[in-house]
Amino acid sequence: MSDPWDRVGVVETYTGGRFDLFDPDPDDIRLQDIATALAHTCRFGGHCQWFYSVAHHSIHVSRELPSADPRLQLLGLLHDAGEAYIGDIPRPLKAEYEQFDRVEERILEAVWTAVALEPPSDGEWERVMAADDRLLAYEADRVLEDGSWAESVADLGYDLQSDSIDAIRDRFLSRGETLLNRLPEQP
After folding, report:
1. Which is it for the CA torsion 59, 44, 81, 91, positive or negative?
2. Which branch of life, at top level (predicted)?
3. So what CATH class is 25-182?
4. Are 10 and 4 spatial neighbours (Cβ–Cβ below 8 Å)?
């Protein structure tokens, strides 16, 4: 048996596991790893006026979705879970190089399996992405020096001043566990 470190795409996770970026295994995914990595990852490639994490963003995306639908809220919370393993790659770069999207999609498929969640339907994913876009505009308008490119900025009322990384990680983890517990029993 070969050493997993011999493979090019393997990274070590917060909990000490190993994760293969190019052959993601749902058994290697831990909500703790996702929460920790996203809490340490700054939005907008780090070009914010203050530190604002992807985990904090994801909590707000989740809250933008109907509270009566814990599945949709969980999809919103985990919509950027791939970034826990590959980082927050700016949209223009993803748009130019499709391979980033393919790697991230495969990781998200593994995430859905790891948390026993059916992959989102097209309609569900559209709702999550619409919430993500609302947050993108709201955040750009507030955390970037010049977010004037953001159109139709609604005042969503979210506090974007981040707590400590540990506090955001714990909030993300708690929200994820709460939403997982609110899901209907699987047959």
Report:
1. positive
2. Archaea
3. mainly alpha
4. yes
| Cβ pair 85, 141 in contact under 8 A | no
CB contact at 8 A, 132 and 61: yes
For residues 127-144, one letter each, b for 16 or more C-beta atoms within 10 angstroms of the residue's C-beta and e for the rest, the string is bbeebbebbbbbbbbbbb
The tally of CA atoms less than 13 A away on the side-chain side of residue 126 is: 3
Q: Where are the domains of the chain?
A: 25-182
Centre a 10 Å sphere on the Cβ of residue 35 and count the other Cβ atoms it contains: 26
Q: What is the pLDDT of residue 165?
A: 96
- How far CA 162 is from CA of 74, 130, 146, 168, 174, in Å, comes to 21, 23, 19, 7, 16
pLDDT in tens, 120-179: 999 999 999 999 999 999 999 999 988 777 777 888 888 898 789 999 999 999 999 999
Residue 181 neighbours by CB distance under 10 Å:
8
45: left (phi over 0), alpha (psi -120 to 50) or beta: left
User: In which residue are the tokens 């159109």 written?
Assistant: 151
